[in-house]
Amino acid sequence: MTERTSGRMTRSSGVLLHPTSLPGPDGCGDLGAAARRFVDWLAAAGQSWWQVLPLGPTSYGDSPYQTLSAFAGNPLLISLEDLITDGWLTEADLRDRPRFPDERVDFSAVIPWRLGRLQRAWAVFLERADAAAWDDFQGWSALQAGWLDDFALFMALKQEHGGKPWHQWPGELVRREPAALADAAAALARQMDHFRFCQWLFHRQWALLREHARRQGVSFLGDIPIFVAHDSSDVWARQDLFQLDEGGLPRVVAGVPPDYFSKTGQLWGNPLYDWRAAADEGYAWWRARLQAVLRLVDVVRLDHFRGFAAYWEVPAGAETAESGRWVPGPGADFFQSLQQDLGEDLPLVAEDLGVITPEVDALRRRFRLPGMRVLQFAWSGPDNLFLPHEYEQNTVAYTGTHDNDPVLGWWRHLTDQATREMVAEYAGCAVDEPNWTLIRLGAGSVARLFVATMQDVLGLGREGRMNLPGDGVGNWNWRMAPDAFDHPGGARLQRLTWLYRRAPGQEAARRQDPEPPPEEANP
Fold this sequence. Notes:
Elements: E1 4-5, E2 8-9, E3 12-16, H1 33-44, E4 49-51, H2 80-86, H3 107-128, H4 131-143, H5 145-160, H6 171-174, H7 178-187, H8 189-215, E5 219-224, H9 233-237, E6 252-256, E7 266-271, H10 275-280, H11 284-294, E8 299-302, E9 310-315, E10 325-328, H12 332-342, E11 348-350, H13 358-366, E12 371-374, E13 395-398, H14 407-412, H15 417-427, H16 434-444, E14 449-453, H17 454-457, H18 489-499
């Protein structure tokens, strides 16, 4: 794990890349050979962190921020080729794979192919697994039963009912009447074991990848959305923790109010928590959620951090977010409960972008959580808090996030010449490669952690965008080209990482004179 001081990150840097964006033969990136190669690439480039998006099983829209479970892993990330090594698939099982595009994830083709191969692996496991494999699978399943049993039953019932959301199932299942649940679990036992099997595979492969990363000195920065999808095992299993009506539908939903970017606000539609009910049980569900994610990653970014101070509540059925109101969140009480499990120095990063009130900032500071600064947002004037001279050390700085254009796409589509002129004036030079200008500014800042997107390292434009907020079509599908690991951006990133003392060991050796890496043209 990357060296930390008093539970806090030391001066370091990393790259943001979701695993689905890796290259590979089966339509989307996974936890196999390309993931291990990316870890090696990160280490060679002097990077200490791999930041990922949420890792849960996606559903309609393919968004990692709207998943079927807050605890489960995405089965699309299971490496089919590694299952050959395990003995659960053969090369013949993968011989008839479709011709997938290299530059995009075609989820409509990837999902049936990958899930079909996992069904085949399950059939082989049932036929050939020895006692040791069964003991490992069943032992892991027993340890994870607190979330896994509900998830497996939820997925089996969803499959049994043609994919319908849980609130459209028979009433006794919506209400989770014990007799109905017992009957369903008995009837669907084999299907439930298949879903447990896929989770076992995911967590085995992730554990191997994480161990490989640790050997290379690379840690993982994960991501937790504050809200969960209504059609999820979490809401179905714990309806008492959400503001739902008798039919299981939300009474109120999440969103954000009108602002400069949207005259009607944003209507997200997620069910809102009953924070009083959560507090009454000591935030047990949330604490279990954090612990589950921290078994996969080293530090977690809390998405929409301001919602813990106050959240925008919109009546269910509203067409826009304009009719909402601010409601106090759980505040300090919530984070104090997390400290019982995770210690005083919480391994969290606060996503504090957007309009942040003094109350939100005070909550973040009270628990010493790093905030975020995004360089694409920095150019309104010299007093902009996203400019590097305004940073505090306890900060994670970014060129952009998964919701932004890559820097080249942003730069090429700027309509305000004054922004280009200010970037050049601030950098003190002509801006010929705006992605490297922002990477240099971020790497040289005082922020303890600097993260560049892989798209910016590769010098991609709008074609590399991962997500366009508010557009439900065509997102989350960008992939690296198969030859991207050989791109010269890796060597340039290494040089800047060394130059600004972010490489592993440089923080501890601050007073020494390390051997520099080879000179690169135009670093």
